[in-house]
Amino acid sequence: MLDKVKNVIVVLSGKGGVGKSTVSTQLALALRETGYKVGLLDIDLCGPSVPYLLGLEGSDIYQCDEGWVPIYTDETKTLAVMSIGFLLKSRDDPVIWRGPKKTVMIKQFLTDVKWEELDYLIIDTPPGTSDEHITVMECMREVPCTGAVLVTTPQGVALDDVRKEITFCKKTGIKLLGIVENMSGFVCPHCTTCTNIFSSNGGVELANFAQVPHLGTLPIDPRMGVLVGSTSSVLSHLPDSSTAQVMRHIVQQLAAATAQPQEITA
Ligand SMILES: Nc1ncnc2c1ncn2[C@@H]1O[C@H](COP(=O)(O)OP(=O)(O)OP(=O)(O)O)[C@@H](O)[C@H]1O
């Protein structure tokens, strides 16, 4: 049930492993710490990483008369999480399903979860544009999708795939809220010199080319690993880091683009 959800943001990536789940999770946490009520839905059926990233593995979910009850990360109930991972017995269990079964499961996830009032529902999707993405778009009737955030790394091969995502968004009528370039440059913790291990600025160039906002460029930050398993964002954990500054700016832009501007203090 999406009727109490004000904004749905879908996070997409052309390639796997570019940090889409990390960005989705950090975005959800940062929005929550900014004062919004947030839901995080992980529809990456073959590789659900949200429970792992938030330290919620092994959480039991149950169904009430109105549907699946999401997991709340704390008593304030400001972050609700739902993932296929909660239905799997172990992290090693593979999901081997054909398209139609995946479609049914995602439809259920979108229509049968008892989301309370949310300012934002962030949907973490699998890489590419497949059954899962088309199903999400089909289900957006009660609450039309507010827009998509595309995550890419700076390498040419990842950027090529993002172009396909841009075309997908245009064809399905999803507004592109912007592009996040992730794992762009490594800032040495000792001398603070930034080394562009891959190329750099590809996300900016692609955003200019596609005429969509470039939301930010996140560096490779080994400290992001420390946040795995925690429910605090980089904003509160490493407030002075360049990663936190970029994330803060991304949240500000998304809040402005979705007409929910709010002072960001975290
Ligand atoms: N900016 C970053 N700095 C350092 N490590 C990062 C950064 N972004 C992501 N990572 C790490 O990279 C790995 C892959 O990230 P993540 O699982 O978010 O990618 P994904 O695109 O969602 O992958 P998948 O294709 O499996 O869905 C994780 O170990 C994550 O901690």
Automatic annotation (TrEMBL):
InterPro entries listed in its UniProt record: Mrp-like_CS, Mrp/NBP35_ATP-bd, NUBP2/Cfd1_eukaryotes, P-loop_NTPase, YlxH/NBP35
Superkingdom field: Eukaryota
Biological processes annotated in GO: iron-sulfur cluster assembly
Cofactor note: Binds 4 [4Fe-4S] clusters per heterotetramer. Contains two stable clusters in the N-termini of NUBP1 and two labile, bridging clusters between subunits of the NUBP1-NUBP2 heterotetramer.
Cell compartments where the protein resides: Cytoplasm, Cytoskeleton, Cilium axoneme; Cytoplasm, Cytoskeleton, Microtubule organizing center, Centrosome, Centriole
Positions with a binding annotation for [4Fe-4S] cluster: 188, 191
Subunit structure: Heterotetramer of 2 NUBP1 and 2 NUBP2 chains. Interacts with KIFC1. Interacts with NUBP1.
Protein's UniProt name: Cytosolic Fe-S cluster assembly factor NUBP2 homolog
Taxonomic source organism: Drosophila lebanonensis (Fruit fly)
